[in-house]
Amino acid sequence: MDKLQRRVNALKNVQLKLADAELKLYEEINKLESKYQSVFEPIYGEREKIVNGEHEPTDEEANWPYKDEQEQDEEVNGNSAKKLKTENGSADAKGVPEFWLKCLKSTSLLGGMIQPYDEPVLKHLRDIRVRLNTEKPHGYTLEFHFNENEYFANKVLTKTFELSTERDQENPLSTDTTRLYKCVGSKIEWNDGKNVTLKVTKKKQTNKSNGQTKEVTREEKKGSFFDLFDTHTQDGVKPSMKVTDKKNSDNDDLDEEEELEHLFELDYEIGQFIKDVLVPKALLYYTGELIDDSLDSMDEDDEDDEDDDDDESEGDEQKN
Predict the structure, then answer these.
(1) What is the three-class DSSP state of 232?
(2) pTM value?
(3) CA atoms of 282 and 120, how far apart (whole Å)
(4) Is 158 helix (H, G, I), strand (E, B) or coil?
C-alpha cells in the first residue's frame, strides 16, 4: 500500500469518528425534541380548538399588534372571508373550514397527491399531530385526526416511521445519520361504496359453453392521497434493511425491490416534511405567507411558457 492510500484510509477513519460524533449529537437533539413535545402539545391543542370551532378567540387573543404583517393578514383574511361566504353562505362559518385541506394543497409535495375525489374526505380532517418515540427505536408517528364522516370508521389514521442509527456496513461513509428501517400505515376501515382509492368497473362476460352472459364487477386501485397509509411490505421493513442473497435473485425480484425502495424513500420524504415543516408551520401555508419554492418555480415555468407562446404567435403574425 502506497503512502497516499494509507493517508486516505486514515482520513476515512477520521470521517467515521465525525459520523460517530454526529450520531451523538442526533441522540441529544432527539432527547431535547422529546422533552419539548410536552411543551408543544398544549399549544397545538389551542390551534386545534380554534380551527374546529371549539374555542372562539377573545378580543385579547385576536389582537395582532404587528402593523406591517397585520395589513397583509387583513388582505388574506378578507379573501378567505369572501371564499367562506361563497362556499358556505356566510363568513361566520364554524372555526376555520377546510383548514388542513388548504394547508396540504398549498404544498407541492402533498398537493400533487390530492385528487378531486380525495378532497371531500380531507374536509373532515381536524388535526395532524406528531408523536416522537421517547425511547429506542428512534422514530415517530404521524396522526391524522378526523371528525366523524361517511367515508370510513377510523377516528385516527397513522403512519409510523422507525429509524435505524446502525452504521451501513455496505456504505460505512454514508452521510445519513439515520436511515428508514420500517414504515407502517393504518388499515383504513372504508364504509361500503366509499373507498375513494378504488375504481369499480363492470364488464359483461359470456360463457362460451352455454352462451349465457353475466356482469362481473372488478375493483382497480387508483392514485389517492390515502395511498400514504399503505404498508408496502408485509412486515413494513424496508427491503434494503433485510439481509438477502441478491446473487440468487432474478431481474423481476430486483425490479420489484427497486420499486419498493422508491416507495419507502418517498414515504420517508413525506413523513419528514409533515413532521418538520407542515405541522409546525401549518398556519403560514393556510394564509399563503409560506409558499413552496417548487410551486413558485412551477408558476414561473407556466408564465415563461405563456411568454414563449406569445412570442411565437407574434413572430408568426409578422411573417404573415
Answers:
(1) coil
(2) 0.80
(3) 20
(4) strand
